[in-house]
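note to self — DONT lose this again. spent like an hour looking for the file last time. sequence + predicted structure for the chain T wanted, 194 res
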Amino acid sequence: MSVDELKDAEDAELIIAVLAGNLKAFDELVSRYQRAMLTVAQQVVKNPIEAEDIVQDAFLLAFEALPQLDNLNRFGSWLYSITRNRALRFMKRSSKFQLHEDEDAELQIEADPASTDPAQILVQESTHQAIRDSISSLPTDFREVITLYYWAEMPQKRIADTLSLPITTVKWRLHKAKDLLKAQLEKRGYGDLL
């Protein structure tokens, strides 16, 4: 398969290519899912460096177990499960943090590095904190969908496959999450952000 063919191929086609020995096909799977899996891991461990290690481990485990994958079209949801389970195991082993389901979605948002005005930096940090707090207050189902869509930039179809949900459910949860987020931001005085 050429590079263009790899980019256009479905997940199942890529898996068949990997099983036939084409490692470039696995590279394509990694590029498709890496950002989303980093988001998933970071929701649990809260540390970007640890999240990267967990995702690398998850991809390695997925690569080794690829021949056992029964439904090739379910790669995204299978990888999601592996990543989330690895992150939860890491948290259990590290015992640095007590994991609570209601607190597992802090997002990493950085201030604009080009800005040097202290007042502007303070406003940005305050705004980012309000967004993080508002997203953290969303129920898990809505928080997952909105973070995968906006921060991991995952298409709705891939979110549906990854979370094993119908596309209509993903669209509804995304719409509802935006409404809930807007209400949370309005309560905090940031209603003009959405």
